[in-house]
Amino acid sequence: MTVAPSASQELEETPVRNGMLRYALSKAGGALLSISMVIVATFFLFRLLPGDPVRALAQGRNMTPEQLDLERHRLGLDKSLPEQFFQFVKQTVQFDLGTSYEYKRPVLDLIGERIGSTLLLTGTALVIAVTLGIWQGARAGWKPGSRFDRFSTAISLVLWSVPTFWLGLLLLMVFAAGVGPIPGVFPTRGIESVDAPDGFGYVLDVAKHMVLPCLTMVAVVYAQYLLVMRSSVLDEVGQDYVTTARAKGLKDDDVRRKHAVPNALLPTVTLVFMRIGFVVGGAVTVEAIFSWPGLGQLFYEAIRVPDFTLMQGTFLLITVSVIVMNTLADVVYHLLDPRVRSA
User: What local confidence, expressed as pLDDT, does residue 150 receive?
Assistant: First the structure.
């Protein structure tokens, strides 16, 4: 038989719910303000880049000055800067990111074609980095100063300090066919082979193409999860509940896995949510180095022109996704940790 909650219990829960709602609304308001500032910054930031999009697009076409003026009028670049800005804001509010100068297609269509490749690569790298970082961080923090702790922490810090582009180029030098010392083991360009088979063979082909870019991304980010998890476990080791669990005769691995690690996961969960925002944006450097056809590569191609509408659209998507996920991280942490709610 279920017992209905008493009036006093309902009165106690009401302020908690109201406080949670106010907290969520305040974070949402802050996120909207940040997005508004990003929209303004996105427009003016790329106008500072050197280069004329019209002349860049006209290379090799021997266009006359009159034709260049017509092209500039077609792209809307003959308008004043305030006019271009208000047009950009109006389109953005209507979820219209404009038409690419170079591809002459809607930016949203281009993003829709590339976002799947980015999510595949960066999502896989995120899962591997989180799993590896949490596992190593939990073991290292449980026995600080051990050989495993010193080795894993040192390796992760070294890889974290290595520039992403340098590590990617190094892997290209090692595995590039006809050049590297162990060539042909993994593909170094693209997402699939020209003669890729169908079915499960295609899956294996894509997986082989993912190895090097995924390895590059994992190597330079998993240290964050390791260090945060290690620090959290170190804080939990001396807690009374850990001492009590050990006094009851539980195995050391059980105490770590069932008691210390779940309580130490809160900061890591927040970090994971924050990194999910970067998953949408991908890694511009990694995708450019390995010619991975994702949003990062698309953004890199837009910078070369410069293609203002394409740069604005991809950059806006990346920054908004980061802001949204950071906001969710704050709300989730507020929900999971009662100490934050009481504060």
Answer: 92
